[in-house]
Known about the structure:
The protein is an alpha/beta fold. Helix content is 19%, strand content 24%. The protein is built from 2 helices and 8 strands.
Amino acid sequence: xxxxxxxxxxxxxxxxxxxxxxxxxxxxxxxxxxxxxxxxxxxxxxxxxxxxxxxxxxxxxxxxxxxxxxxxxxxxxxxxxxxxxxxxxxxxxxxxxxxxxxxxxxxxxxxxxxxxxxxxxxxxxxxxxxxxxxxxxxxxxxxxxxxxxxxxxxxxx
Length: 157
């Protein structure tokens, strides 16, 4: 399995961040990557550094499945790569730090939601995220098994 880890600087323009990410996937696939993974909150600046206060809790959130994830599903199918995203998910009135896993045929295999939500100066994540309810799934992809640990969950194997 050849893995590419995408790291990019997010701007305040979420759509421009998505467009750069789509280009990064193409570049990684052209370099032979089979599995392409993104960092936490890949399509926006790290907003939990600020207390929510009166901010819209759903600002920057996306549904899974939804238009943003579909863009990457289409690209995964076109290029024959597995893509692991991370985004601020909205599910009804709840929100999560989530990683959808997309197989090389474009199928959404599932989602991992962060379970352990940190909360201290500069990381006010409990203001934004609900604790995940998916456990720690393992996904059978075209190139092997993949599990996702998000942020603070890495401290609780």
